[in-house]
Structure formats: structure tokens, C-alpha cells
Design goal:
By secondary structure, the protein is α/β, with parallel strands linked by helices. The chain is built from 13 helices and ten strands. Strands 6-5-4-7-8-10-9 form a seven-stranded mixed sheet, with helices on both faces. A three-stranded antiparallel sheet has the order 1-3-2.
Length: 346
């Protein structure tokens, strides 16, 4: 009987895993709410944690074991065991960490759970349950997120990836004027300006939102090189004569992608470069499973989320040439397709 494999997963296991993920998410959520990772930079027992946070000692131990199974905590061989942050918890989930991303993670969890609670209504009626937010509320929410949660994601994830991508763009070192389009807190523009000392430019976003970017630019001491421009991408000018435009997860929110791409194309000088970072739905179901849960809400709201190859085709139709493709770049939440597209020199 040695040939029998009793450990082969049942076909339903991936779907049972979905239910288990909900418990893991809540184990992390309360750890962030109670600032557990602040305590566990130094080893501590479950009893010490329970006393510090005024929790039940036995159930605290089970909770810490769950976080250990998620590789957020390490434990030693002492009895009782002592728990301590792993590197990922220390670097990204401890409030004092420079790359703290806990608020951003919780923000995404709340948004996805809210969408999931309305999914049946949207499939049945085409409309989310309850009252849809008006535009002003949406902009206010985006501005608040730009100050906190989006800033955390840019600082912890996007900035590093933008710099790594620019190292692959031959034109970056010679670029003199750039636009961070829909840049929110403006941390990408700040990082690119620091990396290229001759670079100047603007951060474009809603008028309320660019006040956040302006504050960050002042704190970075880059007021002489970076400015902000408030407006609506669909209707307001974005400037012209740019050598480089960075555009990340913005085109999902425009009413007319073709018109927006034409506007971006016109804003570049001849030979200028657009770096577009937007998710696309892959043709492979396993890869699509990493993308669709997050972008399903946008699709159901009628926002443009292209399938693989669709963005490249749209860029070509807008007149862009010499397009370099990076189909699976690791951004926050899901992989995105990065396209480096140029305006012709002629």
C-alpha cells in the first residue's frame, strides 16, 4: 500500500481555504488594532501579552499561535514559549517602523469586505446596495487616504518599484521635466526627483488632494523643483512639454480612456516617455485569481479594467510607439502591467 497518497488535497480545499482566510485576516486585524507588534520587538510570553493588553491569557496564547502559523511571529523553545516579531511584522506592521503599512492593509480589508457584502445586490440589480457616494465624498475620501493609507503604500511599496523601473528606462537619466499624474501624496515624484537631481516637475491630482502632496514636497525640501497642479483629469489641463509622465492606477477611474491617453500623449514632448502601471486581467485563471478580486468592484462600476494586451493596444491607438512591457510587476494588492511608451520624435 506504499503507493497510496493520503495527503493529496481534496478538490474543494481551495474553497475551504477561502473560509480560513477570513479568520487569518481577523487575527491580523485585531493585532493591528491592539498594536501587538509594537510589544513584540522583544520576546514575550502569551501571559505577558495578555497582562499588557488586558486579555484572556489562554485565548491570547491561541491567537499568538495563529499569528505564528501566519509567519508574523516567531517563537522559541522555552516553556512557556516566547513570541517575537518576524521581519515582515517588524518592517511593515509595527507602528514605529518607517515602512509601516498597517493602516493601508486595514483600509483595503474594510473596502473589500464592504464590496463583498454588496456583491449580490450588484450582480442582481447592477447597483450596489445603499446610497452611492457622491463625487465630493469620493474626492474627500481619496484625499484622506492620500494623507495616510495611500502614503503608506507608496512609501512601503510603490516608491521602491518606481525607482527600480526607472533604472530600466534609458531616457530617465536625461529627463528634465516630469509629471506624477494622479500622484496622491506625491511620494513617487519626490523619490524620482531625489534620484535624478536635474529633474523638475508637477504632481497632478484633485485640488484637495494636491495639498497633501504639497505638504510632503515642503517636508522633503523640494519646493524649488516640484510643484502641484489641482484639477480633474477628465476636464482640466495637465500641462505640456514633459519628458516623463508617471501614471499609476489612474486610468481605471477616467470616463474616457482614449481621450485621456490622447491628452497624456499631447502633454509629452516629442520623444517623451509615459510609464503606465495598471492592472490587467490575465488570460490564465491562476494569474487572474490574483487580480480579479480587487478589480471586480471597479468592473462592476463600469470603470475601465483591460484584459491582457488591452492597454498596449490602447496606447498604440493613441499614437504611442516603442512600447516596452513588464506584464507582472509586484505592486500593492495585486500585480500590475507596466508599459513604458514613447511619443514619436517625428
Amino acid at each position: 500500500m506504499n503507493g497510496i497518497n493520503l495527503a493529496s488535497p481534496h478538490p474543494l480545499q481551495p474553497y475551504w481555504d477561502l473560509t480560513l482566510a477570513a479568520v487569518r485576516a481577523d487575527a491580523l486585524r485585531i493585532a493591528l488594532d491592539w498594536k501587538l507588534f509594537n510589544l513584540l520587538q522583544v520576546p514575550a510570553t502569551a501571559l505577558a501579552v495578555a497582562r499588557q493588553l488586558q486579555l484572556d491569557p489562554a485565548n491570547t496564547g491561541y491567537w499568538l499561535e495563529a499569528l505564528w502559523s501566519m509567519e508574523l511571529l516567531a517563537r522559541d523553545d522555552r516553556q512557556p514559549p516566547h513570541y517575537r516579531n518576524t521581519a515582515v511584522a517588524s518592517d511593515y506592521l509595527r507602528v514605529e517602523a518607517p515602512d509601516y503599512c498597517g493602516d493601508a492593509w486595514a483600509f483595503r480589508l474594510r473596502g473589500l469586505r464592504h464590496f463583498g457584502s454588496q456583491l449580490g445586490d450588484q450582480v442582481r440589480t447592477g447597483q450596489p446596495g445603499g446610497q452611492a457616494p457622491n463625487v465630493a465624498t469620493t474626492i474627500d475620501n481619496w484625499t484622506t487616504a492620500a494623507r495616510l493609507q495611500i502614503a503608506q503604500e507608496q512609501r512601503a511599496v510603490t516608491v521602491d518599484m518606481a525607482l527600480r523601473l526607472m533604472a530600466q528606462v534609458p531616457e530617465f537619466s536625461a529627463a528634465r521635466r516630469m509629471l506624477d499624474l494622479g500622484g496622491g501624496p506625491g511620494l513617487v515624484a519626490i523619490a524620482l526627483a531625489r534620484d535624478n537631481p536635474t529633474l523638475t516637475g508637477e504632481v497632478f491630482d484633485f485640488a484637495q488632494t494636491v495639498t497633501v502632496a504639497a505638504d510632503n514636497i515642503r517636508r522633503a525640501g523640494l519646493e524649488a523643483r516640484l510643484d502641484v497642479r489641482g484639477g480633474d483629469l477628465a476636464s482640466d489641463p495637465i500641462g505640456e512639454g514633459y519628458d516623463l509622465i508617471w501614471c499609476s492606477s489612474v486610468l481605471h477611474f477616467v470616463p474616457d480612456m482614449a481621450a485621456t491617453l490622447a491628452k497624456i500623449h499631447a502633454a509629452l514632448r516629442p520623444g517623451g516617455v509615459l510609464v503606465s502601471a495598471h492592472a490587467e486581467i490575465p488570460t490564465d485563471p491562476e494569474q487572474a485569481r490574483r487580480v480579479m478580486p480587487y478589480y471586480l468592484s471597479m468592473q462592476m462600476l463600469g470603470r475601465p479594467v483591460t484584459y491582457a494586451g488591452g492597454m498596449s493596444e490602447a496606447l498604440q491607438q493613441a499614437g504611442f510607439v516603442n512600447i516596452d512591457s513588464y506584464p507582472e510587476v509586484a505592486f500593492a494588492m495585486t500585480p500590475v502591467s507596466v508599459l513604458v511608451a514613447r511619443r514619436s520624435t517625428s
